[in-house]
């Protein structure tokens, strides 16, 4: 086979795999108001329409805060707040309704351009927040119930429900309900597979927050993915007091926005949403990139096991061969057949991201308390994501668990990398006899070793 790496083909493969998996599932889009004012909005709507047309059930929850502020100000109403929550007064609620429906119609317009039917509906039953700490919240409400069967009827007929930030009491009294709360309640009630938090701007970058050293980030500093425990850790490290904000300070505003989004993502995750994605709605193609590629372009909070190192299954063998092939062609790895791998199946592990194999490695017992780390390869499109390193650490721990005293590796091109991980060059004389006899003198690989006693994995 010829050099197999072709980024475009890989993207198409990933996209098809995801499309198959998501058809028929429900996704909620909570979209911040400023996104609707940007030039990218029409593209975002086109991409959402594409999802609807490909069989994904889409629900839109428009954020409206800034537009409500504008409308109220035009009518000389300055909102009072209790903490971060607006107190919706008697004279404000008709204007809030008007503003909420005005924003919802922007989505109707956007989807109409792609001939996707949408319905702005009264799908939220609300009740008043009442009096909190002596403060009457007036027409500010909370979600009492999502009318799931009505929404399902709309979704079943291929239409997209739009939920403005208004809910009604059983007697028909309107309440202003935060769109964040509506989005989480709808996602939970409809058992959505994903909630997208679509913002206007690049958030959750490492320069905006204090983050633990183990947080997965990309080269440009984007926080790639977090599990709920890690998200919680970031919230703790950046404990934020609203009083702290010096007015107009950009860095503080960005930090607050990041933390608000993390809190929202975490509450969705706690409510049972498996994946929450935070993306920049002003970046063209961000939605499709995030949805249909493993690396995405946003930040994902995942409640389940998203990436893992595990033993191999029969169905992994073609993927392993596919990852190795370009490296075999470059003479970096020796050629192995499917049978070779099957024969030593228990020695192999794979690095899996969202169900797809992206790296592999093996640990062979050489006897005499020594093991050989071999067949280590990472998918080129996913290099420098620490997958190689994590497989090495995993196999070192495995060797340690098996009571091995030394891990060896034979390499022609990767000595510097192994040295970084704590391996040191050794001579052929130190190999167990059988391995000494099978050493390929034509290939002349260098031999590196890591002594295990007392050393943590990866330490040099
Ligand atoms: C070695 C290999 C497994 C690393 O996989 P990976 O998932 O990209 O590894 P990591 O993310 O943990 O490490 C990447 C870092 O190692 C560096 N690196 C990769 N290959 C290297 C090499 N041959 N020599 C020195 N450094 C190397 C990268 O430049 C990167 O540096 P950065 O973190 O400063 O950007 C991968 O490059 C590969 O498949 N190589 C070919 C196969 C091979 O050599 N196998 C070992 C023989 S068994």
Plain-language structure description:
With 460 residues, this protein is α/β, with parallel strands linked by helices. The chain has 2 domains: 7-302, Carbamate kinase (3-Layer(aba) Sandwich), CATH 3.40.1160.10; 307-451, Aminopeptidase. Helices cover 37% and strands 25% of the residues. It has 15 helices and 24 strands. The protein has helices spanning 7-22, 33-37, 41-53, 65-74, 93-112, 148-156, 179-189, 228-237, 250-270, 286-292, 317-329, 338-343, 387-401, 415-420, 433-438; strands at 26-31, 57-62, 80-82, 85-87, 118-120, 124-128, 131-132, 135-136, 141-146, 160-162, 166-168, 174-176, 194-199, 216-217, 223-226, 275-280, 299-302, 307-311, 348-353, 356-367, 370-378, 406-411, 424-425, 446-451. The strands form 7 sheets. Strands 2-1-13-16-17-15-14 form a 7-stranded mixed beta sheet, sandwiched between helices. A 7-stranded mixed beta sheet has the order 18-19-20-21-22-24-23. A hairpin with a 2-residue loop joins strand 7 and strand 8 (135-136). The chain is elongated. It starts with 6 loop residues before the first helix and ends in a 9-residue tail after the last strand. The relative contact order is 0.09. The model is unreliable at 455-460 (pLDDT under 50). Coenzyme A binds next to strand 21, helix 13, strand 22 and helix 14.
